[in-house]
Amino acid sequence: MQATIKADRGLFSYPKYWPHCLGTAPFLPMSKEEMDALGWDSCDVILVTGDAYVDHPSFGMAVIGRVLEAHGFRVGIISQPDWTSKDDFMKLGKPNLYFGVTAGNMDSMINRYTSDKKLRHDDAYTPGNVGGKRPDRAVTVYSQRCREAFKGVPVIVGGIEASLRRIAHYDYWSEKVRRSVLFDSKADMLFFGNAERPLVEVTHRLAAGEDIADLRDIRGTAIIVKEALPEWQGVDSTSLDRPGKIDPISSPYQMEPECDSQEKDTKSSEAPEAAPIVIQPAQKEKEKRKPWENVYVKLPAYETVKDNKVLYAHTSRILHQETNPGCARALMQRHGDRHIWINPPAMPLETEEMDAVFDLPYQRVPHPVYGDAKIPAYDMIRFSINIMRGCYGGCTFCSITEHEGRIIQSRSEDSIIREIEQIRDTVPGFTGVISDLGGPTANMYRLRCKSPKAEATCRRPSCVYPSICAHMDTDHKPTIDLYRRARELPGIKKILIASGVRYDLAVEDPEYVKELALHHVGGYLKIAPEHTEDGPLSKMMKPGMGSYYRFKELFDKYSQEAGKKQYLIPYFIASHPGTTDEDMLSLAIWLKENKFKLDQVQNFYPSPMATATTMYHTEVNSLRKVTKESEEVPSAKGEIHRRLHKAMLRYHDPKNFAQIREALKRMGREDLIGRGPQHLVPPETADEKRQKAQKGRRGERALTKHTGLPPTFQGKNSKGKGRDGNTANKGRRNSDANKQYQGNPQEQSNGNSVNKSGGKTGNRNGANTSKANNGSGNNRNRSQKQPSMHKR
């Protein structure tokens, strides 16, 4: 199908910077010695990354480096530098053009901390799985060190961390709204999303002698400005929000209202002076421009949204409406006396361009400097292949929406087959099994909108929610043909599908489900219902369980016909915004009835800029028009409550019995306590009662004049301190925590993500291990410990 959203210029249409280049580097150099061996006296571009350098198309810096190399630029890589000084940032010398900075395939904060904000001690993107090799907020730290190393050299930031922080955003770790990372990092420019196209344009223009301050209107970039770009028309964000669903544009040439709140250099209340009417000769009518061309949306200022949750939710809603490259407008948001200017997203890559990117001469192994050290992220994806980018699902917890966008960008079948053959023939340790042919979603390969006009102008956040759009192509034949051709290759024993399958799409084409069950499942298949209850599902923009049951029926049928015992492994998110205690209880009962015992359970992780994170922070439903009377969304944030939701998903773990029993008693569901098949948890044992009594006696003995009495036992003038000065206050804090938890359960649920198996999943929940993106990294959320190949 011919693409309807196309760039003006091809990705590889530029003349090479060095026409007589010295050739392709076996690995992009990481030291002066490697540069000398290549005959380089300097690097044109130096890339700084928080990941180990693996020369593989699943790692963002490898993609970026090889794309620039194909354009004739000399590219060096500084991997996981010591950020405590500028020394490591100087080891390749001064770059001729710029530093390119990324935190890596993952957001550095998600990489370093669990969803409960506990410190991690591992890092899948580091040799030896060692944690702590990159700083918190790595984009900011690395950028500042680059400035110190060589003053005056431009610094450009990109990757998942920069991409998800390009605007004022709620920061889960500091629990406040932070400025755009462009201000904190003091970088000259920010790339967001898949960055090959803006990267190539910026690099060639800098090489041609242009100043980076003059590169202002390049798609897929964000810059800092004093005022709006000249000749751009402003529209106030409040004039664009529509109640309910986003209305289609009635005419592709209808102009938007002019921004009433535009800042003007001069204001006057005087009536305009009369002016003579000038009669001009008739001219040929100019072609009408489209309403989004050279139009920017003025968003509420950072100083406003950091304190006003309603306007924060409104801003988030507007941002997510402006993500279609075909019709997106620029965004401008004031920060103090300056503004962040975000150009429309870059145009997606054509199939030929995708093929060219993946056909570059990757070594497909880590840089030799790491020796025999294991890099878990590489081990996970070395036999897997990325066949597409993007996802039109629009799940509110998933950062693909904000990073890769809705447009599906697919490789050709020939290109994918070539990569399989290359793995078979060159990658050490290959045993004949391809671990995945996938992407953010396994079965969206070559699916696109069937209406060119709709694809170019649609602003819906999802093509499949609340139902599959009538314009959406659901024909899985290209995917089926690819699977069949791939498994027929000599030397290929098995082609597995480890990426998540969108089952509501799969049931539209039962032949795909049959192909999957018969040939591409290794006993277990991961799918993601996310929840069983309508409340949280409506805030996730996920389908109801009806689609799951239809898919399961087909999957079981074809598995049985093939004589195979195969099982579905469902993923669930607990405590997502909109989830109540009753919702979690219903999910726990469903799990028990269906004999699921989840092994890996995580809290919902609010990643920057995701719609679900907006609901978590504001407790406002930003999927609808945002007003002061907007629907309230319960979001539990207390540690005790989050632990309960996690416990409910592991109802079978004896460690959780006591906590679940207490919750069931509060909810009036003591009928679920017992030893029968209809019960969720068993009653207290004699041993548990004895231990509880012993704890109670220890507590009574603790109430002495030596330890201090609780505040309720002290005199009117007491300051609440015992002899140690701390005991009473500590008791008060615990009491307050219990009060907070014992309030209305529906006001407190939120935050847990469950993952049954440790395979690759798409970049979920705004924080998911994922495949590196050109100029971008990946975000881990659904299975934080397991890197995924799919979100670059």
Automatic annotation (TrEMBL):
Binds 1 [4Fe-4S] cluster. The cluster is coordinated with 3 cysteines and an exchangeable S-adenosyl-L-methionine. Its cofactor is [4Fe-4S] cluster. Residues 235-284, 673-792 are annotated as: Disordered. Gene3D superfamilies: tm_1862 like domain. InterPro entries: Elp3/MiaA/NifB-like_rSAM, Methylthiotransferase_CS, rSAM, rSAM_horseshoe, rSAM_sf, UPF0313, UPF0313_C, UPF0313_N. Keywords: 4Fe-4S, Iron, Iron-sulfur, Metal-binding, S-adenosyl-L-methionine. Residues 377-643 form the Radical SAM core domain. Pfam families: DUF3362 (PF11842), Radical_SAM (PF04055), Radical_SAM_N (PF08497). It comes from the Bacteria. Residues 737-772 have a biased composition (Polar residues). SUPFAM superfamilies: Radical SAM enzymes. [4Fe-4S] cluster binds at C391, C395, C398. Residues 261-270, 686-703 have a biased composition (Basic and acidic residues). Belongs to the UPF0313 family. This is YgiQ family radical SAM protein. It comes from Alteromonas gracilis.
